[in-house]
Amino acid sequence: MSAQEFGPIRQVAYLVEDLPASLGRWSRYAGIGPWTLYRNVELVGQCRGRDTVVRIDVGLSYQDGLQIELIQPTSRTASPYQDAGGRILVGMHHIAWMTDDLARDKALALARGLSVAFEAGNAAASVVYLEAPAEPGILYEFIQTSPPLLQGFAAGAAAARAWDGRQVVLKTIDFAG
Question: What is the DSSP letter of 168?
Answer without folding.
Answer: S
